[in-house]
Amino acid sequence: MSQRQYLKDIAYEKIKYMVIQGEIKGPTVSENELVELLQMSRTPIREALQRLHNEDFLEVSPKRGIFLKEITVKETHDIMDMRLAIELYALERVEPFFREEHLAFLDEKIKEQEEYLSQNDIFKFIQLDLEYHALFLRVFDNEFFVKTLNNISDRLYQTAMIRFGRDISRAWDSIEDHKQINALLREEKFQEVRDLMEKHILKGKEQFFSH
């Protein structure tokens, strides 16, 4: 990998992380500000911005500059509904493929979530949360479902940062839901797992729209 390619990828990850974390405030940011923040030259930053623009994460316009796109109410509804649909569909069919090693993976994700949340690292907590939920899609082995979750993961990060940033106790509550889900999986009560997961995701949606 060339140094230019390497720097472009670093710029991409850093800009995305800083926007999600709220370290870069909108609605606009200048190229000069990013050069100062990232301590990089303009070329890798411009390439990273173009990639983020292509992913519809932000808007780069010759006239308006760099515009940070806030997640809309409709977009949030659509994302949550998509997540609900694919996760519940997978859970209704995952039983024949679910193994002990999958449950061990979920148990480990919960431990890691507790560790990072105790350090107030909400970003890492959310990353682990997405890994927890993605496990069911991977076990069901539907590549399109996995890609769909990956494609909306940035927006899920943003909605979760807002949701948990308002009240971190909601994150601890989410962990308790995961523990209950794991307990039901241990007893092979997959219908109850499906029902609890539906309540879990809908609760997250309700919390996002509450103040």
TrEMBL record:
Enumerate the Pfam families for this protein. Answer: FCD (PF07729), GntR (PF00392)
Q: What is the name of this protein?
A: GntR family transcriptional regulator
Q: Which SMART domains match?
A: FCD, HTH_GNTR
Q: SUPFAM superfamilies, alphabetically?
A: GntR ligand-binding domain-like, Winged helix' DNA-binding domain
Q: Which UniProt keywords apply?
A: DNA-binding, Transcription, Transcription regulation
Question: InterPro entries given for it?
Answer: GntR_C (IPR011711), TF_FadR/GntR_C (IPR008920), Tscrpt_reg_HTH_GntR (IPR000524), WH-like_DNA-bd_sf (IPR036388), WH_DNA-bd_sf (IPR036390)
The residues forming a coiled coil are: none
Chain ranges of the HTH gntR-type domain: 5-71
